[in-house]
Amino acid sequence: MSGAYTESLNRLIEEFGKLPGIGAKTAERLAFHVLKAQPDEAMGLARAITDVKNNIKRCEICYNYSEQATCQICSDSRRDKSLICVVEQPKDVISLEKTGACKWVYHVLGGHIAPLEGIEPGDLTIDQLVERVRAADVREVIMATNPNMAGDGTTLYISSLLRNVGVRITRLARGLPTGSSIEYASGKILTDAIMGRQELE
Ligand SMILES: [Zn+2]
Prior knowledge:
Blueprint: H1 7-17, H2 24-36, H3 39-55, E1 57-58, E2 65-66, H4 72-75, E3 80-87, H5 90-98, E4 104-108, H6 126-135, E5 140-143, H7 149-163, E6 168-171, H8 187-195, E7 198-199
Parallel strand pairs: 3-4, 3-5, 5-6
Antiparallel strand pairs: 1-2, 6-7
Bound molecules: zinc ion.
Zinc ion binds at residues 59, 61-62, 64, 70-71, 73-74.
């Protein structure tokens, strides 16, 4: 950090530099943009950051992000609550919703099982999922974890638990390239994967 900048400016450059995909040069450019911006614009950015941290919590049904106790999808009466699509992250919900092909509700696990990274089943919302399927009239659980080793392992673990509950378990068709992720799949590939979902053996 250059001594030519004031302390506050240095701090802002440092904070921008922590953001993903932002190098030192870009961090500097953004900080100068904020410095020169109208007070309204700069404060709007500060407020948006504060609001995101203060207002967003987890939906108490599906664990997706929400500003209310229950998220918009869970509150939507047009959704088929008997179909639960299980994903790893909130970003996956966004990718699937963009296809326009989903009339179901979701369950967000909060990641995948990865013992080597210290992520055990108890760190995810797996118990809550099993409880949810047990308590409600659920016809089908659609597993939409990422098509890689960790995602597949997580799906196998969950399906072994759900088998005792006696619900139909499917997973997205394998049009998704192995090793890829839901987040970065194209809308066309995702729609095909949703339409062609298969019974989990
Ligand atoms: Zn929800």
